[in-house]
Amino acid sequence: MAHTVSIFTTPSCAYCKMAKEYFAKNNIQYNEYDVARDIHRRQEMLDKSHQFGVPVIEIDGKIVIGFDKPKISNLLGL
Questions:
Q1: Cβ–Cβ < 8 Å for 34, 10
Q2: For a tag on the chain, would you pick the N or C end, based on fewer CB atoms within 10 A?
Q3: Contacts (Cβ under 8 Å, ≥6 apart) of 45
Q4: Alpha-carbon span 12 to 69, nearest angstrom
Q5: Which residues contact 70 (CB under 8 A, 6 or more apart)?
Q6: CA distances from 51 to 13, 36, 45, 46, 71 (A)
Q7: Which domains are present in the chain?
Q8: Is 59 a residue whose pLDDT tops 90?
């Protein structure tokens, strides 16, 4: 089953990089939004997560704050 995955990031975020590497390793396609540049996506992230920290990862409508590998793996069925 294909999952709908989005990650809200900033260019300097080490945990964002780790999350993207994890997705790549597991062949998970995702949409990436740079909230340092895109104020509309930043507001969307804030509305969904109620915080400014990145990464914020959305998997099939469920929000994961930070690179919470066990939670991400569970939501993706890995």
A1: yes
A2: N
A3: 8, 33, 35, 52, 54, 56
A4: 20
A5: none
A6: 15, 14, 8, 5, 18
A7: 5-76 (3.40.30.10)
A8: yes
Tokens 């939501």 sit at which residue? Answer: 75
Going by C-alpha positions, the residue among 46, 9, 48, 12 that lies closest to residue 31 is: 9
The confidence score (pLDDT) of residue 54 equals 97
For 28-49, the pLDDT digits (tens) are: 999 999 999 999 999 999 999 9
Element (H or E) spanning 71, and its range?
A: helix 69-76
Asked whether 72 and 59 are in contact (CB, 8 A), the reply is: yes
Please check whether residue 51 is in contact with residue 25, taking contact to mean a CB–CB distance below 8 angstroms.
no
Where would I find the beta strands (DSSP E) of 10-48? 31-34
Cα 65 to Cα 48: distance, rounded to the nearest angstrom: 10
